[in-house]
Amino acid sequence: MNNKALEDSEKGHAVLECYEEIPCDPCSEICPFGAITIPGLITNLPQLNLSLCTGCGRCVPACPGQAIFIIKYLPDKRKARISLPYEFLPYPTTGQKGWGLNRNGHAVCRARVISLILNKDYNHTALLSIEIPSRFAKEVRFFRRSNDDNQ
Amino acid sequence: MSEFEMVRDVLVVGAGPAGLGAATEAARLGAQVLVVDENHRPGGQLFKQIHKFFGSASHKAGKRGFVIGEYLLREARDCGVEIWLDSVVEGVLAEGPVCVVQGRNSRHIAFRNLILATGAQENTAIFPGWTLPGVLTAGAAQTFANLHGILPGKKILMLGSGNVGVIVGYQLIQAGARMVGVVDISPKSKGYQVHLDKLKRIGVPFFMSHRITRAWGNFRVEGVELVEVDRNYNILPGTEKKLEVDTICLAVGLNPRTQLARQLRCRLKYIPELGGWVTIHNEDMKTTANNIFIAGDAAGVEEANIAIDEGRLAGVAVAQNLGLVSEKEAETIKEEYRERLFSLRSGKDKERLECKRTLIRAYYE
Amino acid sequence: MTRIIDHPILGAFHRGAEVTITVDGQSLKAREGEPIAAALLANGISVFRFTEKSGDPRGLFCGIGICTDCKMTVNGVPNVRTCVTPIKAEMVIQTQRGTDKWHE
């Protein structure tokens, strides 16, 4: 699937930001659709088959390295939703406004909390979904509430 | 032989992942096992580890450290392993028994086989002001935050950007602290990228190619000065930065605890990649001293999954030594553990594979 | 420093019963079974002793009972490693100065 097709699609899709050969396979074990595979040695990098990925998000809390995110482009193409793993208190709440932070922790755009889900099988890693302008979808990987001077 | 209170088939020193892995395996194969640990609770470092572990999902990957610890403990107890806590193996008497100190009592326990699973301890970094209260090891901060529920400080600087530094830094944020920064004298961290990324996306500043010049404070650390260094670690004048902190955590490496191994006259080898002086062992985890085996960080600083499997390997070897399992059956089981160890060591830190081979070669020299 | 009340992974901490201890004559609250060092830090006390020669303040360092930097005089006995010794009700704890004396 190419980028344009991804942006046209209604469903979310996973992004695996796992680039080092660490012996680890929970992502491939948890995916109910077989979209994530680790060929050969357990230290090999995980491969994502985008056409099998439904964006269900189960892999996000399962990854011990917190290296998986879900991106979903909204129909109007102007907004996107990023789902990311969140393990801090107090939990952000639906509707809360704040900032989308990039991989270096810099606020790059405004963000709004869509949901925070904490299932028992997520094992204390909440799945936080935020809405941001779609052009930042490839950058935003964390959320900070407005007026939150703490980390 | 000196007088002793009791004899055990297998005495395991240390109830961390290596010790419990070894004890369970030996007991499962029919040995009578006693594990002795100086701590108030077993599990070694596992109970402080609140993050999800890497590894194979079929071997408890994705589970948090303390859950793995609980599982290992249950498994050991189910196999009939006896565990003494608050008990220090002070030393080994000439010709035989170990001396176990409990409170003010000392007991002499003889053994047919000994497995050393004594783990590792943290290195320290020295700079003016390092003795001030508030300067402590990353392990101490982690113990107090995760086991005792005490935040060791509010404005914390982490010295060292390896896995321990960044994992503990993350956990201190979860505990409610603010990480003022992570400092490392190297330009590039040796920690896993995913651990670094977790801190970076939160906005924790990284001061790579920096070192601490000094810390100050009245009765507790209040400030620290950093300075940038060049590729040869020389200070670049004019790059000094002062930070307000109340805590400095030292995450500057671990080294194997080899006091007992040395007392038992096991041969050691200096391998920096494995933490310093490491006890030599063969492919069965046997040291150069008779009936003494070793496993876990004491045999080279790696990580928990490796410690467990090295322990299991030693446990089988000991059962074989006691005649409880045939050589053929033992080899089959041991090969399985050796393959798992190979696979765990095949990733980005594969230099450890070569280091371990060096260690095994040294056994035969 | 502070007691952690709620933790995103560990939830609420299970602590022992609240007890009273004395630190340098001052009555303070602690939790039975927690390390003495934890009780002191929770009460905002970071200095556990002063060194023999230079009188430098020292406190928690290794946290696992092997460096002895955290030692204090407890119930009259000096050199008690406070990071691995559990709190008992009515414990009398004193900032240790140098090697201190055995008061038993």
Main sheet strand line-up of chain A = 1-4-5-8-7-6-9
Number of strands of chain A: 9
Roughly how much helix do the residues of chain C carry, as a percent range?
A: under 10%
**Beta-strand percentage range of chain C:** 25-35%
The end-to-end distance of chain C, rounded to whole angstroms, is 31 Å
Counting helices, strands and paired strands, the structural category of chain A is mainly beta
Report mean pLDDT of chain A, rounded to a whole number: 91
Q: What gyration radius of chain A follows from the Cα positions, in whole Å? A: 15 Å
Q: Please count the helical segments of chain A.
A: 3
Order of helices and strands of chain A: HEHEEHEEEEEE
The major beta sheet of chain C can be summarized as: 5 strands, mixed
Q: Largest interface, and how many residues on either side?
A: A-B, 38 and 33 residues
Largest sheet of chain A: 7 strands, antiparallel
According to DSSP, the number of beta strands of chain C is: 11
Low-confidence stretches of chain C: none
Look at the structure and give the mean pLDDT of chain C.
93
Could you say which structural class the secondary elements and strand pairing of chain C correspond to? mainly beta
Could you explain the architecture of this structure?
The complex is a heterotrimer of chains A (151), B (365) and C (104). Chain A has 151 residues and is mainly β. Chain A is 10% helix and 33% strand. In chain A, a hairpin with a 5-residue loop joins strand 6 and strand 7. By secondary structure, chain B is of the alpha/beta class. The two termini of chain B are 30 Å apart. By secondary structure, chain C is mostly beta strands. Chain C has one helix spanning 36-42, and strands at residues 2-3, 6-7, 11-12, 18-23, 26-31, 49-50, 57-58, 71-74, 77-81, 92-94, 96-97. The chains are: A mainly beta (151), B alpha/beta (365), C mainly beta (104). Chains in contact: A-B, A-C, B-C. The interface between B and C is medium-sized, with 34 and 34 residues. Strand 9 (150-151) of chain B pairs antiparallel with strand 1 (2-3) of chain C.
